[in-house]
Every structure is written in structure tokens, then in C-alpha cells.
Amino acid sequence: MRKLPLMLSAIALVGLIPAGCVILEPVTISRPRPSAVELDDITVGHNDSVRLLSRTYTGTLRVRANSATITGAGPGRTIIRGDVVVRGNANTVTGVTVIGSVSVSGNANDLQGSDLSRAEVTIRGQANRY
Length: 130
Description:
By secondary structure, the protein is mostly beta strands. It has a domain at 35-124. The protein is built from 1 helix and 9 strands. It has one helix spanning 3-14; strands at 37-38, 42-44, 49-51, 56-64, 69-71, 79-87, 92-94, 97-105, 115-124. Strands 1, 2, 4, 6, 8 and 9 form a 6-stranded parallel beta sheet that branches. A 3-stranded parallel beta sheet has the order 3-5-7, with no helix packed on it. It is globular and about 75 Å long. The termini are far apart. Residues 1-13 have low confidence and may be disordered.
């Protein structure tokens, strides 16, 4: 009679389910997305291409370059609560909404694909579009 309990335990181990355990449905644990992501004073360099996800960012985005591209997920989807500072030529900032200030110094910078209606905008230079 001693062998019977050993056999039942061996069968439970072979099936990888310990005796007395209950099998539950898989569970997905989700964490809430942060309401805002800190830009941490990000600086973009020459010919860099940066993609911003659909969310709200806080802080300062600095473009100190020529021919850099910053692309958001679309106005109203990618929001920058803070400052956007562009220093250089032929940079593009598109697909974002800026709530704060925008300062552009340089030539041929393009911010036309962004919503700047809630930003204080200062533009210096020639052929800048916004």
C-alpha cells in the first residue's frame, strides 16, 4: 500500500500539475500610462530624426542643428507642454501641438504641420514657415 501514494505523486508530476492545484485563466496585468513624459531638455543634432509617440510631453525640446526632423503622431495626439526652441536652418517640426512657447532662429525651418495656436511664437530669420 505504500506504493500507491508514490504512483499518484509521480502521475501528478508527469502531468506538470501538482496534486490539489487549480488551473486559472491567464491574466494580463496592465499598468496605467503616465499622463506626461518629461522631455528632460532633449537636444536634437544635425540631420537627426526623432519620432515622438502619441502622448503628452513636458519640458523643453531643443533643436540646435541643421536639417533635423521631429515628427509627432499628429496635432492633438502628440502634445508638448513646455518649450520648443529651434536654432539652425532647414529643420522640420511636424505632427505636434505645442502649449507653451516656440522660438525659432534660423532660416527655412518648417513648423507648418504642427498646431501652434496655443503657443507664444517668436520667429527670427528668413523663409521660416509656421
